Amino acid sequence: xxxxxxxxxxxxxxxxxxRVMDISFFAHAEDCGMEEAATAMGEELEIPCCDDExxxxxxxxxxxxxxxxxDLEQQTFLVTFAQSYLDLYTPxxxxxxxxxxxxxxxxxxxxQVLDQVFLI
Length: 120
Description:
By secondary structure, the protein is an alpha+beta fold. The chain is about 30% helix and about 20% strand. It has a domain at about 1-55. A three-stranded antiparallel β-sheet has the order 2-1-3, with no helix packed on it. InterPro entries: DUF8199 (IPR058512), HYC_CC_PP (IPR058060). It holds the Pfam family DUF8199.
């Protein structure tokens, strides 16, 4: 957001007979080649049919924001948002054990030995 608000944009358009033939940002738009074609054929255009338009959108130069520029509601929102966002990344003292409340089953007999099934 800061990048787009501080960059100045220059838009250059090439119009031929009222139609937009090329649009370019930050550079010159290419012409349609009609004037070169007319001179190559040996003709002079009495009324030029092509036109170039250019306009510039100036970006902001002053980005000095202070805490006093914000009203009380905006300050409260920023403080609570920052605090809740930073609380998401606080480290835990102990890792939780997921099966702490569930003890393992009591083995009455060894089923693998009884059935003579062994993993090799």
